[in-house]
Each structure stands twice: as C-alpha cells, then as structure tokens.
Amino acid sequence: MTTEYSGTGDPARSLALLWRTREKASRKGGDLSVDRIVRAAIEVADAEGLAALSMRRVAERLGVGTMTLYTHVPGKGELLDVMLDTVYGETARPERVEGGWRGRLAQIARENFALYLRHPWLLQVATTRPPLGPNLIAKYEYELRAVDGIGLTDLEMDAVVTLVTGYVHGAARPAVEAAQASRDTGMTEQQWWHAHAPYLEKVMDPNRFPLAARVGTTAGQEYQAAGDPARAFEFGLARLLDGVEVLVRDRAGAAPAGVTGG
User: What is the pTM of this model?
Assistant: First the structure.
C-alpha cells in the first residue's frame, strides 16, 4: 500500500495555502481556485486511490493544463496537506452530546471512523507531521473539549485524544479493506465465507486446534463472515473508554474536595 507523508511541502508555502493568506486570482487559471483544485484532488484519491494522485491527473480532471495548477498550488506535497485539512473539516461537531465525556469521545471516534470509510486514502498518509491548517486545529480543539474539565492534566487530555484517534486509525483499516475487497472482487465478505467455510470444516482437525475450532465456529456463525470490523470497532472502543474511565476516577479521587468533571 502506498504511503505518503504529510508536512513535506515548504513550510511557508504550505501554511499560506492552508490558511489562504496569499490566494489570488490568475488570468491563466480563469475561475480556477485552490478550493476547486483540492476538491478535484480529493475526488481522484477517493475514486482511484492515492497512487493515482498527481498534479497531471488533477489537471486532467479539471480540464486544464498541468502548469496552470502551479499558479495556485506549489506542488503535490502542499496539495496533500490541503486535501487532509479539507476532509478534516467534514467531521460533525455537535455542541451537545449525551453521555458526558464518554459519550463525547464515542461520538468523536465514530465520526473519525466514518471519515476513513469515506476517504480510504487517509490510511495511506503518515501524519506524524500533521498539516497545521484551520480545519485540523478546529478538529483538535473540539476533541479536546470532550475531556476538558474532568480532572485531567493538559498532557493527559492530549494523550486521551491521541489514544482515541490512534485506535480509530487502526480499527478502520479492516473495515476499509473489507469494503475494497468486496468492490474489487465482486464478492461480499459473507459470500467469501460461505464459499470457504465448508472446505475449512473438512481440512481442519478440531482435536489439533480445539480453541480455534470452537471460537472460530461461534464467531463464523454469528458474523457469517471471517470477521465483523464494525462490531470489532465498537467492542474495542467500549474497552478503551473503560480504561479512560479508570484514569478519570483515579484523578477524581486525588482531586481536592468539591472538584468534579462532567
């Protein structure tokens, strides 16, 4: 799987582009804009994968010459940063979420999970050097508010948000891969399982693999597939939040009398 890296563009140009501080109209570009270029690039990545993304491919989609794009976007590195920041702006950020901090973190996790399903190419971008744009920072601000005022230190707040979003990144991959396999092979996960399960029963010795036979049979009958990424995501999310709850209770027990969090 192709891996790209965010944050590879020129810092000054990338930040100017992300925050639109120097965008101007160009006669050569007509009504072309950064937003139109970025939207076309996202459409290419969504439809064809990140490996297909190039300045030339985006120009073809827009019906313009490749060099025309460079009057708006310095290069592919800067373009990728703005693509990331743009899709980060898609996550819903309701003011009120039921269930206190736990409900808020669960909502954030599900929004991020859905984002990966809409834009599978996000899993192909290493973002340890994130695009420092307005949408990313607004997203981070919202996610931090989920755990603000519950007794955690600033570093613990950051760590909890990182823990949740990191978990989603890993949990989303099987769901994305299952969807892509169904699309590319024309066979659903259920169809694949029903085609293979009868033969597995014939060749696998339950005496040699007793646990795999027992648990695998139960799981296969329940999922009607080799696995259920969505159910696994929800199960893992609940266990992760259980762990955060232990931390919050521990901090509440150590807090001065009268200090509580919601």
Answer: 0.91
In contact, 129 and 80? CB cutoff 8 Å: no
- Sorted by where each begins, the domain ranges of the chain are 4-21+31-88
User: E-strand spans in 92-216?
Assistant: 125-126
DSSP 8-state assignment for residue 122: G
The residue ranges of the chain whose pLDDT is under 50 are: 25-27, 29, 257-260
pLDDT in tens, 206-253: 999 999 999 999 999 999 999 999 999 999 999 999 999 999 999 998
Superfamily of domain 4-21+31-88: Homeodomain-like (1.10.10.60)
The DSSP element (H or E) to which 5 belongs, if any, is strand 4-5
The first and second tokens of residue 234, run together, are 């929800």
Confirm if 55 and 111 have CB atoms less than 8 A apart: no
- Look up tokens 């040699």; give the residue: 208
- Assign 3-state DSSP to the chain and report helix, strand, coil percentages, each to 5: 65, 0, 30
User: Which one, of 205, 253, 237, lies nearest residue 105 by Cα?
Assistant: 237
